[in-house]
Amino acid sequence: MTRYLITSAIPYVNGIKHLGNLVGSLLPADVHARFRRQTGADVLFICGTDEHGTPTELSAAAAGLDARAFCDAQHALQADIYRRFGLSFDHFGRSSSPQNRELTQHFYRILDAAGLIAERDVRQIWSPRDGRFLPDRYVVGTCPNCRCESARGDQCDGCGVLLDPADLIKPRSAVSGDRDLEVRNSRHLFLRQSLLVDRLRDWVDRREGWPPWVASLARSWLTVDLRDRCITRDLGWGVPVPRPGFEHKVFYVWFDAPICYLAATKEWSDRHPSERDWKSWWWNAQDVQYIQFLGKDNVPFHAVSFPATLIGSGEPWKTVDIIKGFHWLTYRGGKFSTSERRGVFTDAALDTLPADLWRWWLIANAPESADVDFDFRRFAGDVTKDLADVFGNLATRVTSFAVRSFDAGVPSDGTPGDAERELADEVDGRITAIRAAHERLEFRRAAAETRALWVTANRYVQDQAPWAALKSDRRQAAVATRTALNLLRICASVAWCIIPELTSSVLAALGEADATPAWPQGSALVSLDGRKGLSVAKIDPLVAKLAQAEISEFERRFDGTGR
Q1: Average pLDDT of 203-214?
Q2: Residues 117, 108 contacting (CB under 8 angstroms)
Q3: Are 388 and 442 within one domain?
Q4: How far is CA 3 from each of CA 28, 40, 271, rounded to the nearest angstrom?
């Protein structure tokens, strides 16, 4: 039986993430993990915070904290936000863990033994005042392209052009402001990816189920021009390099961060030694399907650099089977901006509206094949229509009628007729379509098919009108009510992986207590009679409709000028 190893891109520990980060990897990974659990599969869903690198050191210094204390606080903050969003990680680890340090150093040693590590001199910026080499992001100055005065040594956020520190006009240290910078040589280690091009290309060619643009992006990197990658940095915070002469260097974040997937699994296992062995998911794991969920900026590193580490080791580590990539979510025609707080960030989203409203809209509009723009008017219209008018209306109308007319129970009278038999066939077909979309990792399609099932359920209730039948044929009203209640159960069960909180409240009102509702099987509607006599609770409106005044306030609040 296939086991499913699911990972999402490891979010950087520095700063609260916006909705684009959420839908770009974390949320769809959670939806798929939940779906697979519903089908009875053995699932391991792993993530963590990426805690090393230049931005962490800078932010920690600005906060007056050492890097460890800063990361402790930021990790806890992010973990809490993701918990409140309903992300069901089996473990949410940390790249600064002892397990990641151990595994990162292991991979370095075995790659070195295989002749895939080389020492080379790199010309870097030296700050006499700071007494250290400055990584690219530690150097700031004026962009030679757009004249932005806060460009970094690796990239200008003003125009997006890639830079080297030496390109900057009037460069200075981001730490001390030192302008008397020098260019000196610094010795670094390189992963010789160029020696692995053929093996990597063969590996990519054997992958199946990748979105075409993801496979194309991976292949575009696998050319004769694939450069060896520097895997060390002149920093104090990170995984130490166990090599003579490199005592004051650490591994580059893009070398150690992906290894955190393995390390977080080991961390989970170390904390729960009575449970499954972590290595069975990664070592000779022939029965495991490994799926990564990534934003498009992370695809090259996970499709080339991380596989180079695993394949280059010569050890039987599990490599990814499917990379599900996502494009950008933009905000009202522009980029989300952390510095300006432009756009909806995850903490503010949870303070504004229930998590499931965001979950539904983001999955129903996931940027799978192109960028998608977020707009509050569109968001409000979609969640009102789908969650309030369709699903919410079904839940309230059906349970209210059962409570009022059948003593808060599932009525047992009557025998299903032609309408119910035809409905059963349609429902089975829709359940099959929803499941197929989830299995193909087509999230927008899965949401659309789920919505179609809700519409089918509402149409049946409207056509059968049990409130009208009750006046002349109580048995027919009982059949229609019983069928409608079971329809509601099915509608909630297949939507649970997307909107777990709303659907759990519906299932609880129908007497379903399972934390993870089973995926409906064939002839799901016909199995209804086994629920005769169970109690039903009235469901109040699930979702409040957003008023125009609220929408206008949200637009003002999140445009970057209303704070």
Answers
A1: 95
A2: yes
A3: yes
A4: 18, 10, 21
Q: Are residues 169 and 209 in the same domain?
A: no
With tokens 């089908």, the residue in question is 39
Together in a domain, 65 and 207: yes
- Cα 332–27–435 angle (5° rounding)? 115
pLDDT band at residue 162, thresholds of 50, 70 and 90? confident
* Token pair of 110 as six digits: 């075995």
* Angle formed at CA 462 by CA 458 and CA 465, multiple of 5 degrees: 135
pLDDT of residue 457: 96
CA distance 403 to 401: 5
Instruction: Tell me: pLDDT of 532 over 70.
Output: no
Which among 346, 253, 261 has a CA at the least distance from the CA of 47?
261
Number of domains in the chain: 3
The β-bridge partners of 45 are 6
Domain of residue 258 covers 3-115+196-219+253-326
Q: Residue 502's domain is classified under what CATH number? A: 1.10.730.10
Residue 427 domain-assigned (yes or no): yes
Tokens of 480: 């229609």
Residue 393 lies in a domain: yes
Predicted confidence at residue 134, as pLDDT, reads 86
Check the CA dihedral 505-508-512-513 and report its sign: positive
Residue 28 pLDDT > 60:
yes
Query: Which helix (DSSP H) or strand (DSSP E) does residue 357 occupy?
Result: helix 355-364
Q: For residues 106 and 123, state if they share a domain.
A: no
Dihedral Cα 459, 463, 464, 470, nearest 10 deg: 120
* CA atoms of 37 and 172, how far apart (whole Å): 52
Same domain, 213 and 97: yes
The CA-based diameter of the chain, rounded to the nearest angstrom, is 93
pLDDT at 562 over 50: no
Q: What is the domain-level CATH number for residue 277? A: 3.40.50.620
* Structure tokens, 291: 């799926």
Q: Whole-angstrom Cα distance, residue 259 to residue 265?
A: 10
Q: What is the pTM of this model?
A: 0.93
